[in-house]
Automatic annotation (TrEMBL):
PANTHER family: ACETYL-COENZYME A SYNTHETASE, ACETYL-COENZYME A SYNTHETASE 1
UniProt name for this protein: Acetyl-coenzyme A synthetase
Recorded catalytic activity of this chain's protein: acetate + ATP + CoA = acetyl-CoA + AMP + diphosphate
SUPFAM superfamilies xref list: Acetyl-CoA synthetase-like
Binding site for Mg(2+): V537, H539, V542
Amino acid sequence: MHQRDRVEAATFAAKANINREQYEQLCAQAVQDPDGFWAGLAQRLHWYRFPTRIRDVSYDLRDFRIRWYEDGVLNASVNCLDRHLDSNGDKVALIFEPDDPDAPVQKLTYRELHARVCRLANALRNLGVGKGDRVTIYLPMIPEAVVAMLACARIGAVHSVVFGGFAPQSVADRIADCGSKLVITADEGLRGGRRIPLKANVDAALKLPGTHSVETVLVVRHTGAAVPMQMPRDRWFDAVVDGQPDSCEPAQMNAEDPLFILYTSGSTGKPKGVLHTTGGYLVWASYTHALVFDLKPEDVFWCTADIGWITGHSYVVYGPLANGCTQVIFEGVPNHPDVSRFWQVVDRHQVSIFYTAPTAIRALMREGDAPVRATSRTSLRLLGSVGEPINPEAWRWYFEVVGEGRCPIVDTWWQTETGGILISPIPGATDLKPGSATRPLPGIRPALVDATGTLLEGEAEGNLVLLDSWPGQMRTVYGDHQRFIDTYFKTYPGMYFTGDGCRRDADGDYWITGRVDDVINVSGHRIGTAEVESALVAHPAVAEAAVVGVPHPVKGQGIYAYVTLVAGEQETEELRQALVAQVRQMIGPIATPDVIQWAPALPKTRSGKIMRRILRKIAEDAPEQLGDTSTLADPSVVDALLRGRPR
Ligand code: 6R9
């Protein structure tokens, strides 16, 4: 990147919480006095017992452990609610913007949110949910979703939020994996005027094997649709919550007690239950939210992520509420009722910090500048991006059209596994570069390695690793600690492997290039190729399937599937549609294949391994980049696939 492409931090710096010098001091302190630095971060929170053992980490496989603040005792909901009541009880915590812009906006103060959380927490306790029990939350983006998460945290139950776009099979898999005792759902969700049959999906999920652990289903009445209730399993949320006391004794949790499980896709067919613990996660969510977003007491923060993703956990629920911030939660979509919706909501609620995904930016950019210019957006002072690399063109549009050149953009790199942001500009302290997540946060030690694990110095491109732990790091894969170690710590001994490729430029700034494993990033959502493949081969007509990601102008990556049929089956349009429907029905609409190409055979090595590198190039229609095909068992397969590309 050239000098002229830098956007200087200077204009924002005058009002920023920290300047470049202070940022550099923090980075230096984290190196010189790590215990002092990390203990200092913990002071952001309320502890029943402040930790004396700050950090105990070893990535050495013979003696592997990750523990932070391990003798500390706290409660996450107390930090997000009770702590603010005396000074800020009447401050608005949540502004709920419904899908339908004409439906009433709801505002909940910290005091009201606290009361709602306590009522549900009491109800959950009465239903026999206690410390360590798992609760699955399958809700739309409504206030009850936030209430449900915090109510679990209050009593020490471990929540597992499942995105409302997932199909019954995916819901069932996630319930079965963690053995949830209780499910919280709604009659229906609303997205862009469409109804999402959440309760019906739960009913279908609970008919599937492995879900017998569920004793109770709480159903929020949201759209008012008539849904069958199966007694005594199903209970109306209102009915169990009404009349409960609006205070509730919080469970005292050890810092290393689990706070939540969140499933994410990896390179095998089975999603991983990423487990985060209470103390370190909350410290990191709260610290990064305040630091990266230059948070001030008068800000109105809006993160558009759904709570079904980690971004919704850290930057809708735990970070903003731990910081006592006012924020918008939005049930709808960017293009309903029209493509000005995001900016209308910004104006309506005077949003000052706006955080979204590149896919949304690109989709709106295609609609031109007019729908943006039709709104004022003068309340905005800072913009954020997360979920996938943001291409410089989209960055510039976001900066110049949405932010009118006034608002820095924080391009925040992180993962479900990292709990919070690890690499990002600090507004006012870091010069911005369109397309680069720039620098690590204080205390974070990224590095690049080549395929053999050798550390690369200076300007380089390689695989992104982290040399040391941070408090928000995941602690295990639920129920499969060996998988945690194998996935993240075996590839490069002594380091955490992110699964991302990355370039570091001559200034030392980081440019994430995308996943280097079998994970596709569709609109910022991680989808394992193996998950889509197993949904395809579950169809009786399919013999074999191979799925790769292809560049997509809006979604970042699209899903391209090669399908080989069993002998005698016909390659028809009906079958193609049936296969698309099969994937949607088994995983959910987010995994919808963009292209299904019939493949008489797949390119395989002599040992039978599918060569995805070649399939990616065929999907991109880049035969000149195919590279060496001589190791293929049958090189003629490649020509057949190139000729067979659907147009
Ligand atoms: C927070 C979140 C993680 C993967 C990650 C990377 C990609 C996220 C990014 C980014 C480039 C950014 N990613 N933020 N790539 N620039 N600012 O998205 O978590 O759903 O687990 O996805 O997303 O590939 O490894 P998660």
